[in-house]
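Feature request, filed as a ticket because there's no other form

It would be nice if the structure record came with a short human-readable summary line next to the tokens. Right now we just get the raw output. Example of a typical job, pasted below so the devs can see what we mean:
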Amino acid sequence: MFALLLGIGTVASWSIGTRTLSAARTQATTDAGTVTGTVIAGIITSSDLTAPVAPSRAREIDDALQKSGFSSTGFDKITIWLEDGTVVYSTDRNLLAARVPSETSRIRLVLRDGATSEVDQGTFATFVPLTAGTADAVAELDRPYASITERAQPLRLATGLLLILFLCTLYIVYRLS
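Raw output as currently delivered:
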């Protein structure tokens, strides 16, 4: 009976941990949409979405982001993409004015269907539609994935411990029978 309870506890803990991680990812995507709509949309102009911004304009955007409190949002990088895969602004200056055709399908998908997110090499990237005037673009907001997974970490630890207890109990029951 004890082994059954441990097994149920392990499955329940794993399930709750998975749901917690999923909820944290959903919340991070929602947060990216809020930051894009309230902070970034107030800084980016329609002329910023016609071609890559000049270095002086990029510094103006950086300053405006800093003054807006962007650094307290949990996101550490912004890249703004045009539909053709051109980067018109990025906090990573190496990306500014780059054209990445492999991104066009994702950008079109976001413009058509709304925000989406992915995890790549420890970074949680959220892609959110951005409109300034009549110009459309996609804002990519990145944050460390560890900041999202830490919410589910205690439950994953509990799952592991319960699983070990479950397996030990099964072994003891097997040896005693």
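Something like this underneath would help us a lot:
The chain has a mean pLDDT of 87.
The CA atoms of residues 110 and 129 lie 6 Å apart.
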